[in-house]
Design a protein that fits this description.
By secondary structure, this protein is an all-alpha fold. The protein has a single domain (39-153), classed as Hemerythrin-like (Four Helix Bundle (Hemerythrin (Met), subunit A)), CATH 1.20.120.50. 74% of the residues lie in helices and 0% in strands. It has 6 helices and no strands. It has helices spanning 8-19, 36-57, 65-89, 95-118, 122-143, 145-153. The termini are far apart. The model has no long low-confidence stretch (mean pLDDT 85).
């Protein structure tokens, strides 16, 4: 259910809340890998996580939860394929390990999405996504940043 925007005082309060909404995950340039397409995709993932958070917080989630899960799954699959192509192309020594992490994450993302839909608990999916962001993108992906940049800049 959407916030009630009727009535001038209620509308002003709701408007203020929506405009001053705190972003769940704020993008920081320290997350950049230096590969424009991968950085853009990572920002896209953050945007979807923030959209889910906004939907939960302001009760927009009822009709958007299943599409957000599907969109996140599809987008993540495309992102992983592109990221893995970079790793393979540059003969990154840990490419197979990183690909295995991606497969494991896709399995976990699928499971978390299904369980969240089944239990009608979008918080579970949001918690999974935040943990994934912290452990994989902010940690694992940064391990190969210097290697990739060395190939592109060297």
């Amino acid at each position: 259910m959407a916030p009630d925007l009727s009535g001038s005082e209620a509308a002003a309060n709701t408007h203020s809340l929506l405009l001053n909404h705190n972003i769940f995950i704020k993008w920081d340039d320290k997350y950049n890998l230096g590969i424009p397409i991968l950085d853009e995709q990572h920002r896209g993932i953050v945007t979807m996580i923030n959209s889910l958070h906004f939907g939960i917080r302001y009760n927009y989630i009822e009709n958007t939860f299943a599409p957000i899960i599907q969109m996140m799954s599809d987008y993540t699959q495309v992102h992983f394929e592109i990221e893995e192509a970079f790793l393979e192309m540059l003969d990154f020594s840990h490419a197979k390990k990183h690909r295995a992490l991606h497969r494991e994450l896709m399995d976990k993302l699928t499971h978390a999405g299904k369980m969240s839909l089944y239990n009608k608990d979008p918080h579970h999916f949001l918690d999974f996504l935040k943990g994934w962001w912290i452990s994989h993108i902010c940690s694992e992906d940064l391990h190969f940043r210097d290697y990739l940049l060395g190939h592109f800049n060297g």
